[in-house]
């Protein structure tokens, strides 16, 4: 678990708008909706084909999970460096 300060620093580092953080005054502030851009690139994940075995699919999932885990660790390290 991380402390409030560290969680806040991580959120701001990944682009959170600090004005959206509730305070005693604006605790019931309306939530802003974010419009999705139609210009986002298509997913880089391969589409599962019917002939693929469960083992192949599990291997693909494991590979993507490792990639996400590595990215998350890099982001955590970056935030910790910036927060100190």
UniProtKB/TrEMBL annotation:
Q: Which domain of life is it from?
A: Eukaryota
**What SUPFAM superfamilies does UniProt report for this protein, alphabetically?**
Glucocorticoid receptor-like (DNA-binding domain)
- What name does UniProt use for this protein? Nuclear receptor
Native species: Pristionchus mayeri
